[in-house]
Amino acid sequence: MSTINGHTLQEIGVLMKKPFDENLFSKSEKDQSMYLPTEHFKNRLDEVIGVMNYDYELKSVRRYESVLAQGPKPLIEVQITITIKDDDGVPVKKCDGIGVTPAIVISDTGKEKNPNSDVSIAEKNAFKHLCQNVFGM
Predict the structure, then answer these.
(1) 132 — alpha (psi -120 to 50), left (phi > 0) or beta?
(2) pLDDT tens, 52-63?
(3) β-bridge pairing 26-27 and 91-102
(4) CA of 59: how far to CAs of 36, 98, 123, in Å?
(5) Could you tell me which of 55, 56, 134, 137 has the C-alpha nearest to residue 91?
C-alpha cells in the first residue's frame, strides 16, 4: 500500500482536519470577523503531506465583469490545481480550486489599481477553498 509522507490516505484525511490553534486566527479589519490566514493552510499541507509530495499549479487567471443591480463589477477568477503524490512520487489525487476577488479599480481611469495584488488575493482564496473543500480544513 502506498503512503504519503508515511501516512495512508485515511490518516492524511484525519490529520488535515485537525482543528487549528485559536491563536493562529486573525481579526479582519473590515468587519472584525475571525479568519485563518492562508499561510497556516499551507503549513498544514506541508506538515501532513510533505513539501515533496504535492505539486501546486496556477492554471488560469480570468478577468470578467459581474452584472449586478448596482452596475458591473470587475472580478478576477483564479483556478489552481494541487496534485498529491505518494512517497514514490506517483500522483494519487488531483484537486482543483477556484478563487474570486473583486478587482480594485481606480475610479477616474477605470483601470485596476494593482492587478498583481488582486490576482494574489484570488489565488489565496482559491487555495483556502481547495483546502476547505477537499481536506475539510
Answers:
(1) alpha
(2) 999 999 999 998
(3) unpaired
(4) 24, 10, 10
(5) 55
Residues 6+ apart with CB under 8 A from 16: 44, 45, 48, 49, 131, 135, 136, 137
**Site of grid cell 506538515:** 47
Q: Which long-range contacts (CB under 8 A, 24 or more apart) does 100-107 make?
A: 100/75, 100/76, 100/125, 101/75, 101/76, 101/125, 102/73, 102/74, 102/75, 102/76, 103/63, 103/74, 103/75, 103/76, 105/74
Q: What is the reported pTM?
A: 0.81
56 Cβ neighbours under 8 A, 6+ residues apart: 80, 81, 82
In angstroms, the CA 52 to CA 95 distance is 16
The set of cell numbers assigned to 16 is: 488535515
What would the pLDDT profile of 32-75 be if each residue is shown by its tens digit? 899 899 999 999 999 999 999 999 999 999 988 887 667 778 88
Q: What sign does the CA torsion over 16, 19, 25, 30 have?
A: positive
